[in-house]
What does this fold into?
Amino acid sequence: MATLKHTNRLRRVPLLTRAICEALDTQEIRRLCRYLSLSPYDDVALDYNNEFVEQPELFDSLLIDAVRDKKISKGAEKQVIIPQRFTDSILTDKRMTIFVYCSDVVPVYNTINLDYYFKVQICYPLPVEPLADFKSRPWEIASWLEDNIDGMSPSCEYIKELGNITFTMTNDIINGKLANNSEIGVLTVPIRVRVVGTKDMKF
It folds into this structure.
C-alpha cells in the first residue's frame, strides 16, 4: 500500500477547503441560506407565516457575519459556510449552516496522485426544508453542487499552483437528522478532489 512520504502534501488541505468554500459562496446559495421563504430565488416571496417578504440581491459573503444585507431572515446574518468539521454548537442555533472539511487523504495506487476526500454537510432546520413546487432547500444546495462543482477544475491562482486538480461528487449522499428527536436535518455531500502530478510545496 502506498504511503504519504511528503507531509507537505497535507498543506494542500486548507487551500482545497478554501476553494470549495469560495465556490459555494454564490448568489444562489446565499439566497437558499439567508432567505427562509418558500421561493428564495424570487425578489418577493411568501415566508412560512404566509406573509410576503422582499428578497433583494445579497452582497455579503456566507463566509462572514452579514452586516450590510437587509431584509434577510431572522438569524441569517451569521456566518453560514464554516470551514471545519461539524460542531455541536449547531444544536442550539436553528439556522442554515454548511460545514466543509477534509475527512481523508489517500494516495492513488501506483501513482504520485492524491485523492483528498471532503464532506459538505448542509445543516438545516426541518421547518424550513420545504420550498415551492415540491422542492427541498438542502437538496437544492446539493443540486447546485452537482451542477457547479462536480467536474470543476478551479482557475484561481492558489489552486493552479498545486497541480492538475479535479473535483468529483461521489454517489453516497446521505440525508438524516442530528438525532431522532432533533429539529435539525443534515445532508452530507462527499466530494473527491484528485490532484494529478502532485507538486512539492515549499513553505
